[in-house]
Amino acid sequence: MSELSPTSAEPIAEIAAAIENHSSFVLISHVRPDGDAIGSQIALGFALMAAGKSVRLINEDGLPDNLSFLPGSEKIETPPAEPIEVEVAIALDTATKPRLGENALAAASRAKLWINIDHHISNPSYGDINLIDSTAPATGQILYKLIQSLGLPLPAESRDSIYTAVSTDTGSFQYPSTQAETYEMAADLIRQGLDVGTINSLIYDNHPFRRVELMRALLNTLEISKDGIVAHWELLDQTRQKLQLQPEDSEGLIDIIRGIQGVLLAVFFEELPDGKIRISMRSKDPRLNVCNIATEFGGGGHALAAGIRMAGPIESAKSRLLSAIDRAAHTAGLR
Amino acid sequence: MSELSPTSAEPIAEIAAAIENHSSFVLISHVRPDGDAIGSQIALGFALMAAGKSVRLINEDGLPDNLSFLPGSEKIETPPAEPIEVEVAIALDTATKPRLGENALAAASRAKLWINIDHHISNPSYGDINLIDSTAPATGQILYKLIQSLGLPLPAESRDSIYTAVSTDTGSFQYPSTQAETYEMAADLIRQGLDVGTINSLIYDNHPFRRVELMRALLNTLEISKDGIVAHWELLDQTRQKLQLQPEDSEGLIDIIRGIQGVLLAVFFEELPDGKIRISMRSKDPRLNVCNIATEFGGGGHALAAGIRMAGPIESAKSRLLSAIDRAAHTAGLR
């Protein structure tokens, strides 16, 4: 393992050498992939292909429906049963190696060199070469700069995927992580031919009807505390089955209740097929540290976004969590 | 009336002279103001004040709640009863003079010079000086360039208002009207101190609870045609009264159903206090020209966004409009 500083220019030189000296690459991103994961694979993958390299794009869970509009997404494959004969494996947007998935890791097991490119601050630099920039709002933005630094081609597939990766990971250029450079990158991609109206329409205005049905089902369970600081809603497993929901269908919906005036904490209770309850919490106020609350129940995360898996049934999970939130709100002087 | 070409540099020189030669200004935007209207008033208003001018910011309907977070918004006032003693009136983001509102026009009636700055293509150049750029995605972007061209100061109020004007008029940098320059402008505003995370949280994550209640009420009336190309929902006047809705509460909600896969036409039926039915239509397909459909009922608009006011009751309005849509879909070969 190399011990490079994340801000060092060395990993870029090492990546340049790795690309120069090898001809076959497998690019992998994390399980349950989102726009930054798949977008990063296509972005770097098509740039390498345009430079004449042999490239496979592998994801443990394959391509989610909501990203199948991306040009080049047809190259994303689930892991083959046999290990691939490949020289270099590149992990993209994946904070820990196990998050690449068991089958994807097995498929890439013959690689003799691992490159790890990511923007998660918790990434322990598990590659032989590590390019980690936790100030970047998305791995897609790191790749945009990398492709420029290396002088690689930027085919249309890469251009559109970089935009999608960064747009989805910044909530359409809204999150605090968004930088002046992020907007400048988008401007440059437009000047390079990106059709900004069309791609946004494909990213944001093209959801399956079942997502709207899910929104309605969740809103019909919405409860808000008397003092207005805690809002929560829930999804029963029977609703998931009835609407034939996919994992990506609920993505971002919690923002609807997190965005209510006065709400400091939004909670999503989800009954899983095995009867366990998955809980997602989003806080708007650092005084309500949801990571601390999650830790009480064996969960984890960050101060403003954390998760728990708890035993069911849902009513008892709700009551235990809401009591813990109440204690935390009292301790913080918010109640 | 001057007959300046919209792309001519002359209006900018004339505006420069008007500012140089006068000391008092009233800035007005359209009735039922949105982010680009109010944002444009604050943006130019505070730049002029920072340059030592006397400025009033007037809106027929005053400041909507959802824009009261904007620094400087406390300067927005409803029209005073008596005409203001002012030399120059500046109309912002307002396609026709009557859209400024009767009382606002009366308040500005002593102005001897009218400046008209707008991005609506239908603007008939009703000012003495007209700066119309229909390629700009928002009037806020025209003002950003104008403030630069004139060498006016850009105080924090103007900076934040320009961002808000442009972000809200482009659906957070998503609409086809968004340009490379639009993103470059946002980058520059960040470099000038804009706190991008905070302002977006105030614009997008700070809606009143009643807006979420409205979303739920609308979703519970959602209907989608068997072939999936037409989706519609409705708001009864009693629901508006029960939830104590404000006009801005429904802004943008139609995008939820417009964004459903396969839907080509989204329709919002709204029962008004006088019993009339206000209909908003959004098309995703130029073959379904909603302006043509609206015209059949005395309404109007654009090919992809149009509106109608129809006699009630709501059930008969729905049935008449859905029949017209069915005919249009057949004519277009979509049914």
Automatic annotation (TrEMBL), chains A, B:
Gene3D superfamilies: 3.10.310.30, inorganic pyrophosphatase (n-terminal core). It comes from the Bacteria. One of its GO terms (molecular function) is nucleic acid binding. Residues 26-148 form the DDH domain. Residues 244-329 form the DHHA1 domain. InterPro entries: DDH_dom, DHH_sf, DHHA1_dom, Oligoribo/pAp-PDE_c-di-AMP_PDE. Pfam families: DHH (PF01368), DHHA1 (PF02272). This is Bifunctional oligoribonuclease/PAP phosphatase NrnA.
